[in-house]
Amino acid sequence: MEKETKSIRIAIMGAGTVGGGVYKLLQMRKSDMYQRVGADIEIAKILVKSIPETRKDVDASLLTENFDDIMNDDSIQLVVEVMGGIEPARTFILRCLNSGKSVVSANKDLIAVHGRELLDAAEANKVDFMFEASCAGGIPIIRPLKQCLIANEITEIMGIVNGTTNYILTKMAQEGMEFEEALAKATELGYAEADPTADVEGLDAGRKMAIMGSIGFHSRITFDDVYTEGITHITSKDIKYAKDMDCVIKLLGIARNTDNGVEVRVHPTLISKEHPLASVNDVFNAVFVHGDAVDDTMFYGRGAGEMPTASAVVGDVLEVARNIKGKCLGMFGCTCYRELPIKQIGDIESKYFMRMVVRDCAGVLGNVASILGNNHVSIEKIIQKPAGCDTAEIVAITDVVQEKNFKAAMQTLNDMSFVQEISSMIRVYA
């Protein structure tokens, strides 16, 4: 049978690390594309900020600085957005969707805020909008949530979704580094940006949890709904005490669908050394999903980087290309048909790790226990060690408690004359 000669023309917006990886991977698979998709993939245009500054391994004849060169080319059916940021990416994507061009994006910042608007535009124009690479780099998670696990009522999505902070905490745990030293090492190796705020303050992970929670629970969650707390206050002493209690500290994203509403949060968390996430180290990511039918599933791999992220982007490109070929675009729009309430951080329940320095004298431990009890906080484990001249360090893990009660107890303790310092308050996964 004679081979049908048909190519699908695409444009790439952005030629940075991820855009260059997408270009490279498409070139690597070029000879197999027809067999895998049923059509060849032809790159028609690559939008860049400045042509002279573009990476040398990209064909210069494809470059343009003018978005209209993509918009006005009716032969371009699919646009890949790997520019990042909110604008002009949002405007460009909406114009593409409204003109009948499908879009693949890796833009977690944009999707965590404007995801519904983009999905609605795709549905209205009967085109595809896919974003597998927005949450966990090369780890498949969006498609499993939307398709493979759709028969489940998902009650929890949690995991390590930021490689930079996981690398930092790994170095602190394995080599005894303090935060600043570990961050400097991450920056030296290219794992941390020049401005690492989005990573170390939990913002990057928060955006990913908003996206995954929206899909998993079928209810819109935006980045503003996510409580975020970073790792800048974690010390090597916290990590040592966690180890003494058979735990490790990880920056976890946790999304839960409870009877009282949805909770979505990112913060440092103690987890048992027996938990599978405890052994996820360096820049690796892992996501746990709990469904009522499937029970627990875990997705593990490299959550960032040029080629892992390109793998997810190109996977979406080929899926859209198959849909174009099969004339079945627009099959999966927004899946948020519920309107679940978002729980405030004070209403969540958790165990807590706390560390404080107190005067080393009779009755102090009893007073601490009394204040905790008056605020409905009970203790599961406690350690007291000398801390210096006439001082002692109390380290404890509580039973499950409502956050606002724990914070009230900590405020009362902080005002007591026998308390010199409340050094750490870290949630414990339970």
From TrEMBL:
Enzyme nomenclature, EC number: 1.1.1.3
PROSITE patterns reported for this sequence: ACT (PS51671), HOMOSER_DHGENASE (PS01042)
Residues holding NADPH: 108
Catalysed reaction equations from the record: L-homoserine + NADP(+) = L-aspartate 4-semialdehyde + NADPH + H(+)
Residues annotated as the enzyme's active site: 208 (proton donor)
GO biological process, one term: methionine biosynthetic process
Annotated ranges, domain ACT: 353-427
Positions bound to L-homoserine: 193
Superkingdom in the source lineage: Bacteria
Pathway(s): Amino-acid biosynthesis; L-threonine biosynthesis; L-threonine from L-aspartate: step 3/5; Amino-acid biosynthesis; L-methionine biosynthesis via de novo pathway; L-homoserine from L-aspartate: step 3/3
Keyword presence, Magnesium: no
Pfam family, one: ACT
UniProt protein name: Homoserine dehydrogenase
Top-tier EC class: oxidoreductase
Keywords assigned: Amino-acid biosynthesis, Methionine biosynthesis, NADP, Oxidoreductase, Sodium, Threonine biosynthesis
Needed co-factor(s): a metal cation
Binding residues annotated for NADP(+), in chain numbering: 13-20
GO molecular function: homoserine dehydrogenase activity; NADP binding
Stated family: Belongs to the homoserine dehydrogenase family.
